[in-house]
């Protein structure tokens, strides 16, 4: 078998995860190659993006290209969920002041823009090149590729990023994949012309409607096309699909909906109807010696919250940082593996928790689909409330899901967990207000579960050593400045805040002392609201 020249990083798959990882690694000055099985532009479902991807697009230098591509700006979502047939909408701007919109994209075009950008940044992009084997040994690392001429060759690489999407090449080879028993659905979808739009100002929103057999999406695209699909039970639907063709099956499902069927009353199906296994999964290990999994190659969650491309691009950035770090500093690289995995999993779990809640909250619909998904009938489901509270506690940068959750028909147990959490935050705010004139005399105490740890933190395109505060809500840790770290290390449950700052600023000038005092009050106040500081008495 022929052998190619070794590259620093070999990326399998040129979807959003692979192209983002490749571009970021190329920006760090490494030699990078992408092997992509298809010829782009290639078909792909998943058109509705989240504002969380906008920052990464900027980082990739794609702002202009994306805004010039003619994609519809998406300002929010509209839902009919449960018995109440009145649609309700929420806008990203309600909670995200920085990026108030994302886009509804044609995925073939969007993915191609991203992959072309990788090539512009110096990545060697080889399309129609399929990877069939991965070798991860330190002494013989690389992949076996079949190129478009049908020739097989070995591509040596110092590091491998698997971004092969649901093919999940490495996870399957190493038997790492773990299926999620709660989300074993099937998606069936097609593209319609001439669908009615939602009323302004929600005309570009994704529309989601639950119905007896599951839920449907309608995503308006820029050329009078609407992507329409149904998410239904896998077993039940497969049985039905053995007796009928996909077009009839999809149309039957859509006819059971109230609003979507009205939106499509004069529309025409203008594509094939595709069926996809929509089973959620994760992997038991996402990063190892010389390899990392990014995007769907690592985990996939039901598309209810349109989170797939965001997770793919976010993990692409992190995967590149992990690879770059491993190649520069092996010890820091080893430590970074768990940071990569915890950060990615935390974001994934956030969307999984939300999806679980939404599926469970559709209590008013009696059908096999919804009954099977009412997990809250299980005893003690809420005994571990932490992940749910985290999902809505506003710690997420997007936060708009909180609005959705507050408006849904959520289980009482969840609502009481949430109001307890909100009450705690209100009490803390009130307490802070009442002690603002005497805060310097107060003695701060760290919450028992809050810890200060030295860990790799994401810096410019790679990990570096830093200090993080970990809490049960933020297991991956929130990086903090040296100043905040020093402040926290001085907290012993005996010294007042003024004594702590005095100790930290003995040799500083009067002006600097004043500044430090001001920063300390600000930092302690924020940490108190977030629960890192437990007591201020
Ligand atoms: C029904 C459904 C609806 C969805 N809706 C949305 C949505 O509205 N919004 C959203 O954000 N997400 C949505 N998603 C999820 C989203 O599409 C994916 O999460 C996203 O595409 C993941 O990106 P990726 O780069 O990891 O994988 P992919 O985009 O799948 O890219 C993987 C690439 O790897 C290539 N590849 C595979 N095997 C090999 C190999 N052996 N050798 C070389 N190359 C290979 C493939 O050709 C492909 O180009 C949806 C998913 C489903 C199933």
Please give a structural write-up.
Strand 2, helix 1 (16-27) and strand 3 form a beta-alpha-beta unit. The chain contains 17 helices and 24 strands. With 537 residues, the chain is α+β, with helices and mostly antiparallel strands. The termini are far apart. The chain is globular. It has four domains: 2-68 and 105-174 and 284-328, FAD/NAD(P)-binding domain, CATH 3.50.50.60; 179-278, D-Amino Acid Oxidase, Chain A, domain 2 (2-Layer Sandwich); 354-426, no CATH class; 435-536, no CATH class. Strands 1, 2, 3, 8, 9, 10, 11, 18 and 19 form a nine-stranded mixed beta sheet that branches. Strands 5, 6, 12, 13, 14, 15, 16 and 17 form an eight-stranded mixed beta sheet that branches. Flavin-adenine dinucleotide binds at residues 12-18, 35-38, 42, 44-49, 130-131, 163-165, 167, 169, 187, 229, 276, 278, 295-297, 303, 306-310, 312.
Brief synopsis:
Helices cover 37% and strands 25% of the residues.
What brief labels describe this structure?
single chain; 537 residues; alpha+beta; FAD/NAD(P)-binding domain; D-Amino Acid Oxidase, Chain A, domain 2; 4 domains; nine-stranded mixed β-sheet; eight-stranded mixed β-sheet; 17 helices; 37% helix; binds flavin-adenine dinucleotide
Protein topology:
Blueprint: E1 2-3, E2 7-12, H1 16-27, E3 32-35, H2 54-59, H3 63-68, E4 72-74, E5 76-80, E6 88-91, E7 102-104, H4 107-120, E8 124-126, E9 130-136, E10 141-146, E11 152-162, H5 169-173, E12 177-193, E13 206-211, E14 214-220, E15 225-233, H6 234-241, H7 246-255, H8 259-263, E16 268-269, E17 274-283, E18 287-288, E19 291-293, H9 308-328, H10 330-361, H11 368-372, H12 386-392, H13 400-407, H14 412-434, E20 444-446, E21 451-458, E22 463-470, E23 478-480, H15 482-490, H16 497-504, H17 510-529, E24 533-536
Parallel strand pairs: 1-11, 2-3, 2-11, 3-8, 5-13, 11-19
Antiparallel strand pairs: 4-7, 5-6, 9-10, 10-11, 12-15, 12-16, 12-17, 13-14, 14-15, 18-19, 20-24, 21-22, 22-23
The structure holds flavin-adenine dinucleotide (FAD).
Flavin-adenine dinucleotide binds at residues 12-18, 35-38, 42, 44-49, 130-131, 163-165, 167, 169, 187, 229, 276, 278, 295-297, 303, 306-310, 312.
């Amino acid at each position: 078998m022929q052998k190619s020249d070794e590259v620093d990083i070999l990326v399998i798959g040129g979807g959003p995860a692979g192209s983002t990882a490749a571009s970021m690694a190329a920006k760090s000055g490494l030699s990078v190659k992408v092997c992509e099985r298809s010829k782009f532009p290639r078909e792909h479902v998943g058109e509705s993006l989240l504002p969380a991807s906008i920052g990464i697009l900027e980082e990739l230098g794609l702002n202009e290209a994306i805004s010039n591509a003619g994609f519809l700006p998406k300002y929010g979502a509209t839902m009919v969920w449960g018995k109440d047939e009145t649609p309700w909408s929420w806008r990203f701007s309600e909670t995200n002041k920085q990026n108030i919109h994302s886009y509804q994209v044609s995925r073939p075009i969007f993915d191609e823009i991203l992959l072309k950008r990788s090539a512009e940044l110096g990545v060697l992009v080889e399309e129609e090149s399929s990877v069939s084997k991965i070798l991860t040994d330190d002494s013989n690392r690389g992949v076996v590729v079949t190129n478009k001429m049908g020739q097989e060759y070995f591509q040596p690489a110092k590091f491998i990023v698997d971004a092969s999407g649901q093919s999940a090449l490495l996870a399957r080879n190493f038997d790492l994949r773990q299926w999620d028993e709660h989300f074993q659905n099937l998606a069936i979808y097609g593209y319609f012309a001439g669908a009615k739009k939602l009323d302004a100002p929600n005309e570009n929103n994704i529309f989601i409607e639950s119905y007896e057999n599951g839920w449907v999406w309608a995503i308006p695209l820029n050329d009078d096309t609407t992507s329409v699909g149904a998410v239904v039970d896998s077993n039940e639907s497969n049985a039905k699909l053995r007796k009928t063709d996909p077009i009839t099956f999809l149309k039957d499902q859509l006819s059971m909906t109230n609003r979507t069927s009205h939106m499509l009353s004069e529309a025409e199906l203008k594509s094939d109807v595709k069926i996809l296994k929509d089973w959620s999964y994760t992997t038991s290990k996402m990063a190892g010696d010389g390899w990392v999994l990014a995007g769907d190659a690592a985990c996939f969650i039901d598309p209810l919250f349109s989170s797939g491309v965001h997770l793919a691009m976010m993990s692409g950035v992190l995967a590149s940082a992990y690879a770059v770090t491993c190649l520069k500093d092996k010890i820091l690289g080893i430590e970074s593996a768990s940071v990569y995995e915890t950060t990615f999993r935390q974001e994934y779990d956030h969307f999984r928790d939300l999806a679980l809640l939404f599926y469970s909250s559709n209590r008013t619909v009696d059908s096999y689909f919804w009954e099977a998904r009412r997990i809250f009938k299980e005893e003690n489901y809420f005994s571990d409330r932490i992940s749910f509270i985290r999902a809505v506690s506003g710690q997420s940068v997007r936060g708009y899901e909180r609005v959705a959750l507050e408006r849904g028909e959520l289980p009482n147990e969840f609502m009481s967990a949430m109001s307890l959490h909100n009450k705690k935050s209100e009490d803390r705010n009130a307490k802070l207000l009442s002690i603002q004139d005497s805060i310097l005399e107060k003695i701060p105490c760290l919450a028992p579960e809050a810890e200060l740890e030295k860990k790799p933190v994401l810096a410019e395109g790679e990990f570096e050593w830093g200090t993080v505060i970990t809490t049960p809500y933020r297991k991956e840790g929130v990086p903090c400045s040296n100043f905040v770290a020093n402040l926290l290390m001085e907290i012993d449950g005996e010294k007042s805040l003024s004594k702590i700052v005095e100790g930290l600023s003995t040799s500083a000038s009067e002006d600097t002392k004043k500044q430090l005092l001001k920063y300390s009050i600000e930092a302690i106040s924020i940490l108190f609201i977030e629960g890192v500081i437990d007591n201020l008495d």
